[in-house]
Amino acid sequence: MRLSQSLIPTLKETPAEAQIASHRLMLRAGLVRQMASGIYAWLPAGLRVLNKISQIVREEQDAAGAQEVLMPTIQSADLWRESGRYDAYGKEMLRITDRHDRELLYGPTNEEMITAIMRDTTKSYRDLPRNLYHIQWKFRDEVRPRFGVLRGREFLMKDAYSFDLDYEGALIAYKKMMLAYMRTFQRIGITAIPMRADTGQIGGDLSHEFHVLAPTGESGVFYDAAFEAGDSLTATDVEAFYEQMTTMYAATDEKHDLDAWAKIPDERKREGRGIEVGQIFYFGKKYSESMNFAVTGPDGSKIFPEMGSYGIGVSRLVGAIIEARHDEAGIIWPDAIAPFRAAILNLRQGDAVTDQICNDLHEKLGADCLYDDREERAGAKFADADLMGHPWQIIVGPRGAANGVVELKRRATGERFELSVADALAKVLA
Ligand code: P5A
Questions:
Q1: Across 104-124, average pLDDT
Q2: φ and ψ at residue 422, rounded to 5 degrees
Q3: Which of 123, 267, 360, 414 has the fewest CB within 10 Å, making it most exposed?
Q4: CATH number, domain with residue 271
Q5: pLDDT at residue 200 in the model
Q6: 203 CA → ligand 1 middle, Å
Q7: CA 313 / ligand 1 centre spacing (Å)
Q8: Secondary structure (3-state) at 306
Q9: For the chain, what is the domain count?
Q10: Is the CB–ligand 1 distance for residue 154 below 6 Å?
Q11: Cα(150) to centroid of ligand 1, in Å?
Q12: What is the whole-number distance in angstroms between the Cα of residue 106 and the centre of ligand 1?
């Protein structure tokens, strides 16, 4: 993509309304624009990140045996009256009336809807287990939308829902999702720690929140340093993995257990703040019973399925990643979800050899690179490339170009390499 032809409106000034780094940087790097309180439009570079994260989430959900569906954003109030949550949900629910005076709502989550779909389609014990997910916009009329996409009102969530015949099955579904989540976060390039959590609005008695560590996080967290090692995914067997994840101490301040904490050696105690990027719940028959969804068992008896639900804050992740990975100059994207793998910085627009090398690189790198071909000073190009946080910058100036040499900069480390065009290309593509 050519920067001169793109809508990537970078800002030099810090927007006054943004209190934390990720919000400032998302606005300054031209990823999003606020359209109303807690409601954002995603511009081309921001959407590329959102789509790359969604794709990793999707691949790991599929690999864990969940099937993708797409449910609507608008739901009928009657569905929520069946579970009893219509009145209980309170002011966070955006309630809508259509032209026929029918009561609708913009979905804050989909437990009711997926249970209704299953009830209409699934009659026999032979048709379970199932796990269904979608990646869809949600609306929660938060009292205090803040920190940009971290606490928005409209936000993108991956939500999965599992249906099993018994508790043992439901627990396996829960464990598989926990493993899928840890793989997902690892592939995205961030550390997220699973912590015992309260179940809140969703209900049930077993829940974990996944927290990305960042000083500006909304939750206080306590955890065993063993989680920092990053090699926590050594187990491939679901049971062994779950055992490993849940025996190491990790809790948010709401669930902090002083007795258990006291047993951890001091040198392994870590206290900090976290951003909740996902949460998983086991809640048994709460919705299947209240909404009368039962399948027929082998002996003709009625079985109310055991359920769980599993959320990832896809749009929140974008902010959380930036919160965890930035410096004074800008964003430092992990390779897997950067809007562009590399930027090409043309330092002498109009110099035949420089232009030629840049065009060549642009063609070979394809759509996953951003070519800064603007009529701008070199300083402005350097600053914008650091701000936007591309993992690689290929800097092409007339002096090097004359000798077929470019400079390659790694954003995360600041390392610089003088390389031939071919070697630079190979390194970026490696
Ligand atoms: C699990 C999936 C649920 O809603 N039902 C379906 C369950 N869980 S949750 O914890 O309430 O939400 C899941 C994740 O969504 C993100 N999230 C938000 N992101 C941005 N702005 C918000 N206002 C917001 N609210 C929730 C979080 O990452 C949360 O873990």
A1: 98
A2: -65, -40
A3: 267
A4: 3.30.930.10
A5: 75
A6: 14
A7: 6
A8: strand
A9: 2
A10: no
A11: 10
A12: 15
* pLDDT in the model for residue 27: 98
Ligand 1 centroid to 160 CA: how many Å? 12
pLDDT class of 234 with cuts at 50, 70, 90: low
Angle between helices 314-324 and 44-63 (to 10 degrees): 110
Q: Out of 214-228, 285-299, 332-346, 401-415, pick the least confident.
A: 214-228
CATH number at residue 376: 3.40.50.800
Q: Where are the beta strands (DSSP E) in 140-176?
A: 154-164
Q: Is the CB of 279 under 6 A from ligand 1?
A: yes
Task: Residue count of the chain, please give it.
Answer: 430
Residue ending a domain, choose from 286, 311, 330? 330
> Is 184 found in the same domain as 138?
yes
Last residue of a domain, one of 281, 307, 330: 330
Domain span at residue 351 reads: 340-429
Nearest CA residue ID for atom 25, ligand 1: 151
Site to probe by mutation for ligand 1, drawn from 69, 71, 80, 316 as the one with most ligand atoms within 8 Å of Cβ, is 316
* 245, pLDDT greater than 90: no
pLDDT in tens, 246-281: 889 999 998 999 999 999 999 999 999 999 999 999
Q: Whose CA is nearest to atom 2 of ligand 1?
A: 311
Nearest CA to ligand 1 atom 24: 151
Helix (DSSP H) and strand (DSSP E) numbers for the chain = 14, 23
Q: Do 228 and 374 have their domain in common?
A: no
- Per-residue pLDDT, 228: 83
| pLDDT at residue number 151 | 97
Question: Per the domain annotation, does 306 fall within a domain?
Answer: yes
Residue 84's beta-bridge partner residues? none
Per-residue tokens: 249: 């101490």
pLDDT in tens, 275-294: 999 999 999 999 999 999 99
Side by side, the strands of the sheet bearing 103-106 are 74-76, 103-106, 94-97
User: Does 253 share its domain with 368?
Assistant: no
